[in-house]
Amino acid sequence: MLYHLYDLQHAILTPARLSAEMVRTAFQSPMNPLSYTPAGRTISAGAEMFERVTRRFGKPSFDLPFTSINGKDVAITEEFIIEMPFCNLLHFKRATKRKDPKVLIVAPMSGHFATLLRGTVEALLPHHDVYITDWVDVRMIPLSEGRFNLDDYINYVRHFLSLLGPNTSVIAVCQPAVPVLAAVSLMAAENDPNQPLGMILMGGPIDTRVSKTQVTQTAEERPLSWFKNSVVTDVPFYYPGAYRHVYPGFLQLSGFMSMNLDRHVGSHMNFFKHLVTGDGESAEFHRKFYNEYNAVMDLPAEFYLQTVDVVFQRHLLPKGQMKWRDPLTDELMDVQPNKIKHTALLTIEGELDDISARGQTTAAHDLCYSLAQSKQFHHFQLGCGHYGIFNGSKWRTQIMPRIRHFIRKLDKGCDPVPEHDLKLIPDLTPDRYDRDKHGIVAIRRWLKERDQRLKSERITG
Question: Looking at the chain, which residues constitute the CATH 3.40.50.1820 domain(s)?
Fold first, then answer.
């Protein structure tokens, strides 16, 4: 019923939205003398604001036709390596013979499309052979394709890593940190020859007990039955995925908006001012950001509920109690990060992250205690929020070079970074990078103190 009400509201507002679009077009036309007056621009701005607030945004495109390597434009072709019911493996094929490290970006299945990582892909393209998981909106997937849960997600990651081969590094952005760590752990336990060279976990909820956020508190304060009864609904009959149980994207978007409501309201007020004053560049920046931010997809209810249960409520991975059920054989296997010895680990956190707060991702080091210290690294980015970890200036100039150096240190057979690219975004010097690995000792000490504190709280509680 919730989904039907949402669609009904959208349908009722359609005539008003179309009228607003007509008014905007009329008052932005260069043939209309009123478009040059303050009153005309105000009317046009109000009409565009209304149209955008009531619009449903479709899946954006990556729109990355080329990249720049050594000062020269290189064409990019998007190709699907494999198409599966719930996810396609997308390759950004570069028209060059350069041998650069292979990177798989595992995009989050948390409401937004993989195109939210456009800036992530764009910064990596000059230096890497980039692949990304392009998750499919489940309201478009018929029920005949079956269900999809966290176990299936882990299976997809394993399958993609095996397909790309052993000379691959994997980057997990936010939510995929847990399934990626689980997938690599399972591959290590089986001594899989396709284990990745490196694993980069960025702002992910490995252990949400470490530091609380609004997201973790919401998940911990309510029983799983509340989520099942309150935010899970059926896809209406007029979609291809009719009657599939989903966590709707519009609810996730509402949650994202409510966390920083003042910031979003202020951004829209500034957008209105930019339209009235004729600041086209600032207005276009707002459009591009919110065209992407407002484009959301539905999540499979099984995946959503299992993630809430395993990751945010019972914390099975950091407790050493997580198990994976093979979707093909139905065999139950332990997820043991301590089995990882081959794959190097780099964790990345942002100082101002209000989704996966500091400490949640570095907890992975404590779990991978069999991994040599020389293969464990951490990067803490000052003045950076959750979105800024993988998009924006700090990502391009400080975080991406760290990842680039980490990956290239593992893959000895790749070509060197072109000097022109190093001038644009300087690399981190080997000396500084090597010294940082010793910071893992401080991380371990902090994690030990954290565990003692949590144990004390459980006893006193």
Answer: 66-226+299-426
256/274: higher pLDDT = 274
> CA–CA separation, 39 vs 34, rounded Å?
7
CA angle 178, 182, 188 (to 5 degrees): 145
Please say whether the beta carbons of 417 and 427 come within 8 A: yes
What pLDDT is recorded for position 431?
41
Placement of tokens 């692949």 in the chain:
131
254's tokens = 């509402």
Q: What pLDDT, on a 0 to 100 scale, did the predictor assign at position 455?
A: 61
271/282 Cα distance (integer angstroms): 8
**C-alpha span between 15 and 21 (Å, rounded):** 10
Model confidence band, residue 453 (pLDDT cutoffs 50, 70, 90)? low
**Residues 290-332: pLDDT tens digits?**
888 888 999 999 999 999 999 999 999 999 999 999 988 889 9
Whether the predicted pLDDT of 407 surpasses 60: yes
DSSP string, 365-395: HHH-TTS-GGGEEEEEETT--TGGGTSSHHI
The CATH class of the 66-226+299-426 domain is alpha beta
Name 266's Cβ contacts closer than 8 Å, sequence gap at least 6. none
Query: Could you tell me the two tokens for 200?
Result: 């980069």
| CA distances to 33, 49, 275 from 40, in Å | 9, 14, 11
Cα distance between residue 418 and residue 71, in whole Å: 9
Q: State yes or no: pLDDT of 255 exceeds 90.
A: no
Longest Cα–Cα distance of the chain, Å, equals: 74
